[in-house]
Amino acid sequence: MIFFFGTRVRRKLLESGSFRCPYCLEPRGYERLGVRTWIHVFWIPVIPLGSGQEEVRCRFCQNGWAPKVLEGTRLD
User: Fold this and answer.
1) Over the stretch 4-57, which tens digit does the pLDDT of each residue have?
2) Whole-angstrom Cα distance, residue 37 to residue 39?
3) Side-chain-facing half-sphere of 29: CA atoms under 13 Å
4) How far is the C-alpha of 35 from the C-alpha of 9, rounded, in Å?
5) What pLDDT score does 74 carry?
6) What is the pTM of this model?
7) SS3 annotation, the chain
8) pLDDT over 90 (residue 58)
9) Where do the structural domains in the chain lie, given as residue ranges?
10) Alpha-carbon 45 to chain mean position
11) Which of 20, 23, 24, 57 lies 20 to 30 angstroms, CA to CA, from 42?
């Protein structure tokens, strides 16, 4: 029997809005994501590894930063 297992990063949308992107230097949309690594068996997440983290991702350039980048840069 073939047994597929490994780890996979899963992202969950927590919030979205507008901010000034540090890379684009323009007002852009962002997504605040909850990020967590899971052990999977047959591509089904089974056991979470460590604690979850948060990431802010620019919708235009797709770069990601710590949520602290939103302090004072939100436009909505």
Assistant:
1) 889 999 999 999 999 999 999 999 999 999 999 999 998 888 899 988 899 999
2) 7
3) 5
4) 7
5) 67
6) 0.74
7) CCCCEEEEEEEEEEEEEEEECCCCCCEEEEEEEEEEEEEEECCEEEEEEEEEEEEEEECCCCCEECHHHHCCCECC
8) yes
9) 5-70
10) 17
11) 57
